[in-house]
Amino acid sequence: MGRELFLSGNEACALAAYDSGCLFASGYPGTPSTEILENLGTYNSVNTSWATNEKVALELCIGASFAGRRSLAVMKHVGVNVAADPLMTLSYTGIKGGLVIVTCDDPGMHSSQNEQDNRHYALFAKIPMLEPSSSAEVYNFLTAAFYISEKFDTPVLFRLTTRICHSHSRVFPGKKSELPASGFTINNQKYVMIPAWARMRHVFIEKRLALLEKFSCSSKFNIFEKGAGSRLIITSGISYQYVRENFINLPVLKLGMTWPFPAEKVRKISCRFKEVMCVEELDPFLENACLVSGVNNIIKRPKNFYIGELNPERVKALLVNFKDFIKPVKQNIPAARPPALCRGCPHAFMFEIFRDYGLIVAGDIGCYTLGTLSPYNALHACIDMGASIPVGLALRAASAGKQKNKIISVIGDSTFFHSGITGLIDAVYNKRSGLIVILDNRSTAMTGGQDHPGTGKTLPGNISVRLDIEKIVRACGVNRVFQVDPFKKTETAAVIKKSLALKEIVVIIATRECIIYGPQKR
Ligand SMILES: Cc1ncc(C[n+]2csc(CCOP(=O)(O)OP(=O)(O)O)c2C)c(N)n1
Questions:
Q1: Which of 86, 123, 191, 358 has the fewest CB atoms within 10 Å distance of its CB?
Q2: Is the CB of 413 under 6 A from ligand 1?
Q3: Which ligand 1 atom sits closest to the C-alpha of 419?
Q4: Ligand 1 centroid to 392 CA: how many Å?
Q5: What is the pTM of this model?
Q6: Per-residue pLDDT, 329
């Protein structure tokens, strides 16, 4: 008997990467993905890092892969948007050492700004996608993902969702692989994507997709489970568990490799049934793939299923009545509430000032986004990481009258490193004017207190260089830079008041470590 472990999907993912001989991993924190790298960081032999953002993380993994090393890029779903630029061309170059991109999607938006369905990235980038439905499958599929990556010269998209990442189930780990590094092989036509060579690689991609589709049709990832009745269910990921939790006897085509879509297999099985229904979270991804593949006995899900997370009750209601599950009105538990800033949080002091001055705040993503809620109600726009600086400055420039001088940008320290710096450089270069407040709590607090370039520590806990935000801001060409302490509210308020009147770029750095995750607490 082999080992048996009880692991979360994220833990299983880290163990599988380690056991697969992956020696390089990078990512940027984001729920529900964060624990994958945190766990992988406990293995000394794996070079793990929190990159400054997801684009950098993927580019690091590309470099390691080109050197022949298996590598893993880890991010939440919106992180793939940031990494999309290298991703789309990586599909062209292909890889050398197996390269897997883990996207952790968040249907239901437990802790995200949107619930985009990242399965579309596999279709868009023309790369294979695996979708495990339990921790054991996370382990087995990830091991296979490295194999697929190397066999077909492609990056692989590995899609998890919150419930897979965070639920625990049994895992039966295999043996650890030791792989020698093969080194970089010069091959400009493969690794340098100038148009002439990219055109050839596009031809390669289409051939690769055809081969992958054949592989998918015969692969053990896509299995037909016999059952009773004339309706076939096609499903994948966590939705499979919800189907099985309700209906143990239904015939199910369980797809583990959802892209390229195993069209022929699905067609052959589907035509044996009167009706086919895809049980899937969010967009009609499988449903559309079925339709394009010529499956003509599809019953479409009602459109309200395109929204929100599934659960066993919703799936039951879908399969029995073809209706969405309506939550009973009377419940004895309090309604869900959004989180709030902690007692003693330095951000809270700043938001009290913003509120009391009646400022309009173009915000960013972090704990401080909660400044939008009562009792502050002092954050008025939030789009994506790094947006506060361009959005705030343009909002100011495009506004008139009294409102103009009340508009500021507010960004956290981790977010500043992630994608705030380019907005600041743009502001200086284009001679924009306005106030930017950087809330430096020496932590990536929102996601659990991970280190970043401003904390002086790396992911495995080693001491490193601590980048000085003030020096960076000055190096970007900002002349008016003020340091304040949020706990000294009167002084801080005075600096903010004075800065609002200035007709240039002004940066206030409010430094006070996070009450929970500050360096002294770690
Ligand atoms: C592209 C992207 N990557 C990751 C996340 C997850 N995430 C939300 S806020 C945040 C960082 C917040 O850190 P910081 O700006 O320092 O603010 P703090 O929470 O410490 O106040 C991260 C990583 C995200 N929302 N978007």
A1: 358
A2: yes
A3: 1
A4: 18
A5: 0.96
A6: 64
Task: Write the pLDDT tens digit of every residue in 222-276.
Answer: 999 999 999 999 999 999 999 999 999 999 999 999 999 999 999 999 999 999 9
pLDDT tens, 391-442?
999 999 999 988 999 999 999 999 999 999 999 999 999 999 999 999 999 9
| Backbone angles phi and psi of 394, in degrees to 5 | -75, -35
pLDDT of residue 161: 98
What would the CATH number be for the domain defined by 222-321?
Answer: 3.40.50.920
Of all protein residues, the one whose alpha carbon is nearest to atom 22 of ligand 1 is 30
How many Å lie between the centroid of ligand 1 and the Cα of residue 31?
9
User: Which residue in this structure is represented by tokens 């996370």?
Assistant: 138
Q: Give the Cα separation of 413 and 88 in Å (integer).
A: 29
From the CA of 350, how far away is ligand 1's center (Å)? 18
pLDDT at residue 109 in the model: 96
* Domain edges within the chain: 5-218, 222-321, 346-521
The CATH number given to 346-521 is: 3.40.50.970
- Any ligand 1 atom below 6 A from CB of 449: no
The single-letter code of the amino acid at 272 is R
No. of H helices and E strands in the chain? Answer: 21, 18
d(CA 370, CA 386): 16
Instruction: Give the C-alpha distances (Å, rounded to integers) separating 264 from 123, 125, 260, 289, 479.
Output: 17, 22, 11, 11, 64
Q: How many residues does the chain have?
A: 522
Measured distance CA(41)–CA(20) in Å, rounded: 15
Are 495 and 356 in contact, with CB atoms under 8 Å apart? no
